[in-house]
Design goal:
heterodimer, A: 325 residues, mainly alpha, two-stranded antiparallel sheet, 2 strands, B: 540 residues, alpha+beta, nine-stranded mixed β-sheet, four-stranded antiparallel β-sheet, 21 strands, 23% strand
């Protein structure tokens, strides 16, 4: 177990290093942030001064070496356009994104698994067919379009929900969250639903497929023959057996929801990390881009680790050994 | 937000229940609450949606429009500009050129900062130095104060600024330097401004809260030297996505939106619940043409082989291209009416605009004739380069211009890129026909950056992508900037504009029209510099 975790950590450090090189070189290849950020009235001398002040006049490898030295000391640099440490900037915006992602995953899980179970158990009923048709829509409609439609219907025509923004926040253990008050909750609803739609459809289909397969297995037949209630068969036997792929997907999708909530955040003006990333890419704010990617890599590492640990909890046959990696 | 007063009222009720116990204290608290309630009851809040993100509240860190926009509420500057972008008194009641290289500013007496202290020449001197002391700013305000070589505080209400050479644009430049309180900002970092600790200005609004990426909240400063603003509370929401901004207005979440997408204009104009405010913006769109390389990149004959000479060096070719562009159609169709055809590189209200110049008339036959005279009877091939996320409908404009050029036999390809990639390629000199948009407070300043011969020693021609060079123009620009007499300076700037038009140094397209939409009961005088200033909105 310990060896397993240690090996994971070594691999992660390597992944971080590679990612930092890739992003660093990538942003460098796109261009010079000074071109975008400079005061248009600045003369050539001023441009040169600003370039030198940010160290952008140095060769690429020198810039990377400086970055690496500072990064090992825990300093990922200051944002060019915000003049705030990049990590602070990201952590300031992280609660909003994590809250949105958690809300979306919660919607997806709470609705997706039961609906999937129903659709899997009675695949021919009209209700199941409706669920499946709905899941196709959830898969295929583009997020930005659904988001705009939600705003049009619920904010503009019905006037039930606020169109954009995060609303009131309250502190929970020092972290600002919006789901604890009415105004915040109202603001959270639409973006969370919009973000959840794709994951919801995915979970429905996954659960349905797993259920249909499991229902044909011998142990289900045996349980039936034993006279167990359907309720008990589904909740105690079927669900437990189909959970492993579902947990894997939830884990991976949770990471991707946090990392790629950009579209939803942009449409609903949700002040999360995704919006920060887009803005930073637009002005080539390298410290923020690099820090963002590194933090996301760390997050995926942690989530994957958690998923692996969950496996062994769900299925005692899975052993966490060095060979299992 | 309309819910806020109700909840505050219920709080007073519960307070009253306990008031029997601690009457003296509670009484005072109640009186205070009642005072605030009375204030909020008759209060007015204005919620404005801005179209770009605010990165820093430090007024001297990054010269980006949204940052400056907030700065203008909390701070004042020596000079301001009116809706037509002409300098008007700000903190300074008047200014004059004592001699050719000395400007004297007389500071209004009794101006108070938000902390109650008085604003004096010492604060002004400090603020004029601060932009130079900020390390690591990629696009700060240093350019505006760099010309000042010496400052002299004559008395608390008079300051003299000396420049190395005569510089007539100084009062205009100083409109961009916001005056901070020396006491509050002496050791302040950008973080101190973001948190509000150092956000002590003398502007019409006090800083309340900055939620990064989401909103900025301000409250009226009762002690402002001008008539107090109409709104007690102002909230700026940051809504960079166009449809989201319009939706927020339609849903009633905000009262005003800026930079209305052209696609929504017709719909909002027809809606009786809203009012539009429009002005010709200072932003002018034009194409730079390569005028310095014998073999400009991406310019070929029709089969893709390089040409013998650079066609853009011939003024007839430049004029032919200008004649080939149907500006009224471009404005009407692509910009949905939100632009006016351009003849100058500065828009009509800007200092030094030459009104005698008329936008080139669409004349494809004349254009073909000119091309034939220049030795290109069958046209040639070029690539129209433009950004695709910077100006209103920029990529569509590039597409349309390419189509129009094909009518006179020029085979035009189009390359549009995100601004970051685009600017890098431009700086790398990879294009010969490239779009640029420019907004400036005066024609001579604009021409110095855009079309003066490239000269790093003087700081000329920083954005002269085509390396157009004309000694006569350089002389005029230099002369205009060195003239401290406004009238003479404007006359020279106009002459410079005529030289540019005569030479077709760039291909001017149009001046953008900037639009605000607000609820019917609010009015705004549209500003040519595109700033959205809460204190200039009035209830109607």
């Amino acid at each position: 177990m310990l060896v397993f975790i240690l090996r994971r950590l070594t691999q992660s450090a390597l992944a971080l290093l590679i990612m930092s090189v890739l992003v660093f070189v990538g942003v460098f290849a796109i261009g010079n942030p000074i071109d975008i950020l400079i005061n248009p009235q600045a003369d050539q001398a001023e441009i040169a001064r600003a370039t030198a002040a940010l160290g952008l006049d140095q060769p690429l490898w020198t810039q990377y070496w400086d970055f690496l030295r500072n990064a090992l000391g825990g300093n990922l640099g200051r944002s060019f356009s915000h003049n705030v440490p990049a990590v602070q900037l990201i952590f300031e915006r992280m609660p909003a994104t994590v809250e949105l992602a958690l809300a979306a995953m919660l919607i997806a899980i709470v609705l997706g698994i039961p609906l999937g179970l129903v659709a899997g158990m009675k695949p021919e009923s009209w209700f199941s067919r409706t669920i499946m048709a709905g899941s196709i829509l959830g898969f295929s409609l583009p997020t930005f379009w659904v988001g705009l439609m939600l705003i049009m219907v619920f904010s503009v025509y019905l006037g039930w929900l606020p169109s954009t923004g995060r609303g009131h926040t309250t502190l929970l253990l020092g972290v600002p969250v919006s789901f604890l008050n009415w105004d915040g909750l109202m603001h959270l609803m639409m973006p969370a639903l919009n973000l959840a739609l794709f994951k919801l459809s995915l979970l429905i289909r996954l659960t349905r497929a797993g259920t249909r397969e499991a229902m044909l297995q011998d142990y289900v037949k045996f349980a039936r023959a034993k006279g167990l209630s359907m309720r008990r068969i589904v909740l105690a036997h079927v669900l437990k057996n189909i959970m492993i792929p579902i947990v894997t997907v939830i884990g991976l999708e949770f990471g991707s929801v946090i990392a790629f909530s950009i579209v939803t955040e942009t449409i609903f003006a949700w002040p999360g990390m995704g919006k920060l990333l887009i803005d930073s890419i637009n002005v080539l704010d390298r410290p923020v881009i690099v820090a963002y990617v590194l933090i996301i890599v760390c997050m995926f590492v942690i989530i994957n680790l958690a998923v692996d640990l969950l496996y062994s909890a769900l299925d005692p046959r899975v052993r966490l050994s060095a060979a299992a990696t | 937000m309309r819910r806020a007063p109700t909840s505050a009222r219920s709080r007073t009720n519960s307070g009253r229940r306990h008031s029997a116990l601690h009457f003296p204290l509670m009484g005072r608290v109640l009186a205070l609450l009642a005072f605030f309630l009375a204030g909020t009851a008759s209060s007015a809040e204005l919620k404005i949606a801005l179209s770009a993100d605010i990165t820093s509240l430090d007024p001297h860190y990054l010269a980006a429009q949204p940052n400056i926009n907030i700065g203008w509420h909390v701070f004042d500057a020596l000079t301001r500009v009116d809706a037509r972008a002409r300098p008007i008194p700000g903190i300074a009641t008047s200014w004059r050129a004592v001699d050719a290289t000395t400007w004297e500013f007389r500071i209004r007496k009794g101006i108070r900062f938000h902390d109650g202290s008085e604003l004096t020449a010492a604060d002004v001197a400090f603020s004029l130095e601060r932009p130079l002391s900020i390390a690591g700013s990629p696009g700060g305000f240093a350019s505006f104060v760099r010309p000042i070589v010496a400052k002299e505080i004559v008395d608390p209400y008079t300051i003299r600024l000396r420049t190395a050479a005569p510089y007539g644009a100084l009062p205009q430049d100083l409109n961009s330097i916001l005056i901070v309180s020396k006491k509050a900002a002496a050791h302040a970092t950008s973080e101190d401004f973001n948190s509000g600790r150092a956000m002590i200005g003398s502007g019409p609004y006090r800083f309340v809260r900055f939620a990064r990426g989401d909103r900025v909240e301000l409250a009226r400063f009762e002690g402002h030297w001008e008539a107090p603003a109409a709104w007690d509370k102002v909230t700026f929401r940051l809504l960079p996505t166009d449809p989201a901004r319009t939706a927020a207005l339609l849903a009633g979440d905000v009262d005003v939106i800026e930079n209305v997408p052209t696609a929504d204009l017709a719909r909002l104009r027809g809606n009786p619940n809203y009012r539009l405010a429009q002005a010709v913006s200072w932003r002018t769109l034009f194409f730079h043409l390569d005028q310095y390389r014998a073999r400009p990149p991406l310019v070929t004959d029709k089969t893709g082989r390089p040409l013998a000479a650079n066609p853009f060096m011939d003024v007839r070719v430049r004029r032919a291209i200008s004649k080939a562009i149907n500006r009224p159609a471009l404005v009407e169709r692509v910009m949905e009416g939100a632009a006016v055809p351009a003849s100058n590189v500065v828009s009509p209200q800007i200092f030094g605009h030459n009104a005698e110049l008329k936008a080139e008339v669409y004349d494809p036959d004349g254009a073909k004739k000119l091309l034939a005279e220049a030795g290109y009877p069958d046209g040639f091939g070029l690539t129209v380069a433009a950004p695709n996320n910077r100006y209103v409908n920029d990529d569509q404009v590039a597409q349309t211009v390419a189509q129009m050029l094909s009518r006179i036999g020029i085979r035009a390809r189009v390359e549009t890129l995100p601004l970051s990639v685009y600017l890098t390629k431009v700086r790398d000199q990879q294009f010969s026909f490239a779009m640029l948009g420019w907004g400036s407070y005066s024609a001579d300043l604009a021409l110095r950056s855009l079309l003066a011969g490239v000269n790093p020693a003087k700081g000329y021609g920083t954005w002269n992508w085509g390396r157009y060079s004309n000694p006569r123009l350089d002389r005029l620009i230099e002369q205009a900037l060195a003239t401290v007499d406004e009238k003479k300076r404007e006359a020279i700037a106009r002459e410079a504009g005529a030289v540019v038009a005569d030479d077709v140094a760039v291909i001017p397209l149009y001046h953008q029209i900037v639009t605000w939409v607000m609820k019917k009961n609010i009015g705004y005088t549209a500003r040519t510099d595109e700033f959205t200033l809460a204190h200039e909105f009035r209830p109607q």
